[in-house]
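Item description
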Amino acid sequence: MDSVDTSGGLVAARELVATPVATSAQGADTRSVPARILGLGRPPTGAPTPADRRRTARQVSLRRGIVSVVAVFALWEIAVRVFEPSTVIIVGPSTIVASFWELSVSGELWEHFTVSMTQFALGYLLAVVIAIPLGLFMGASRRAHDYGDPWLTALYATPSVALAPLFVIWLGFGNVAHVAIIALVAFFPVIINTIDGVHAVERDLREVGIAFRASRREVFSRIDLPGSLPYIFTGLRLALARALVGIVVADLFGAQAGLGYLILTSSQLFQTGNVFVGVIVLAALGVGFTVGLRALQKKLTPWQIEVKGSS
């Protein structure tokens, strides 16, 4: 029986099967999730798109930030171990970690954290709910701006610490007064930036909307509001930092629990490690909330182009 030479067909079949597998493997990203977030390892081959370049820039910024934090804490620990200052003045990161663990295991830190975050959430949301509509109204109405601007300027120039005792007198010792103090300090950055955002919208855009017979409500909802969103988010980030400061300010007046109360009582007892625990927790919350607001801003204002240096 004559034999049939199938070697050529087998080779062709192997090439046919291997080609799509190689192509798909070439474009697939097999790196782990942390490696993709930090931009580590070798990325998939191919021409980078603008989205890829922006992602790479964010990864570089993230890596630089992590390196900066690690370097500062490492130098801090080394300096404390070399110079051995008094623990009343300053302690090293290792001592702070030990204090954090003790407070966490005992449940004391969670109690303070829960109280402060509840007050912070209520005060911040109250400030935002009032400040954004009022700022949009004052920015769109010249008459409302003229009536409200003197009061806004005077109250913003008044130190919040000077007004805090009045809230305690009016509202008593408790969560209500603390929420009001946090709302007060967070209110002004939001309303001022909202007003500036409405004023920053170009007049030509409004005239184009009017030329196309857009109603006042349509001009406001489709031109003024989207145009002022970047300013509103700037005010939200500034208010976030001030609200975290407001937690400490509010706890100065008759508090029984909270991160500010933890910082105050620990400093009076010369427990420096516990003081740093409260401060670092507040700082970490500020960083986390700010990152979240920036991510939300990118979702709601996709037309904005972030411009950064290439170095």
